[in-house]
Amino acid sequence: MAGTDATSRVTITPLILFMITVIQRVTHANVVIDNETVGQINLGIVALVAVEKADTQKDAERLLERILNYRIFADENDRMNLSLKNIKGGLLLIPQFTLAADTQKGNRPSFISAAPPEKGLQLFSYLQSLAKETYDTVEFGRFGADMKVSLLNDGPVTFMLKS
Per the domain annotation, does 144 fall within a domain? Predict the structure, then answer.
């Protein structure tokens, strides 16, 4: 029987975790901290990024590659065939640990799978550095800050990506 241990007949499923982000195609967006705009873009992508305990730098690298190359912008035939790189749009990366919440039980989210703050900061900082090296038009929210994010979702077009 495929996928089972022959002696116990119990299905064995490997646990595979991914770095999570929600991307939104926007006409413009900004992030404000303490009444100061710290990041803003015009046409592009807002990416809300969660870091979980098992995430690595390799996951961050793969996630950035997917964000930059995910084809969610319309071509001349109004089909989603163009990536952020193709249109040379803006990228606004926002750390958002609440995406790592387990919401399957009860009426209160559990953050047991979220990375501890030190690891979250380290990995988001790595993602920031990588994004700056890789892409010209990139802005950021601030890890751990109380942020006010404003955006105009174009479509609306929203996807959950996993590294």
Answer: yes
Catalytic residue among 97, 124, 140, 143: 97
pLDDT at 11: 52
Active site residue 97: yes
In a domain, 117, yes or no: yes
Q: Domain residues for 115?
A: 20-162
Q: pTM of this prediction?
A: 0.87
Q: Which entry of 96, 124, 128, 140 is annotated as an active-site residue? A: 96
Distances (CA, A) of 160 to 20, 35, 50, 143, 145: 7, 29, 11, 20, 23
CATH classification of the domain holding 145:
3.50.80.10
The reported pLDDT for the residue numbered 60 is 96
Bond into 14 cis (ω within 30): no
Of these residues, 4, 98, 103, 111, which one is catalytic?
A: 98
User: Does the residue 3 lie in any domain?
Assistant: no
